[in-house]
Design a protein that fits this description.
By secondary structure, the chain is of the alpha+beta class. It contains one helix and two strands. A two-stranded antiparallel sheet has the order 1-2. It is elongated and about 65 Å long. The N and C termini lie far apart (56 Å).
């Protein structure tokens, strides 16, 4: 952990930074999974909006 002291004697601690890495492009099966998740989320939101409109 990295620590500094200012002119008033107050400690200031800094967290250790994690090692950075580049993200990899998703595989075709991961892309399909994301599409299915998006469709499912859209279905849920649309259902909630329609139920909300029908109740009010």
């Amino acid at each position: 952990m990295y620590t500094t002291i200012n002119e008033d004697g107050i400690l200031n601690n800094y967290a250790a930074e994690p090692q950075m890495y580049y993200a990899e492009y998703p595989a075709i099966w991961e892309q399909r999974k994301y599409v299915l998740q998006g469709l499912f989320a859209t279905l849920i939101v649309t259902t909630l909006v329609l139920v909300g409109l029908s109740v009010s």
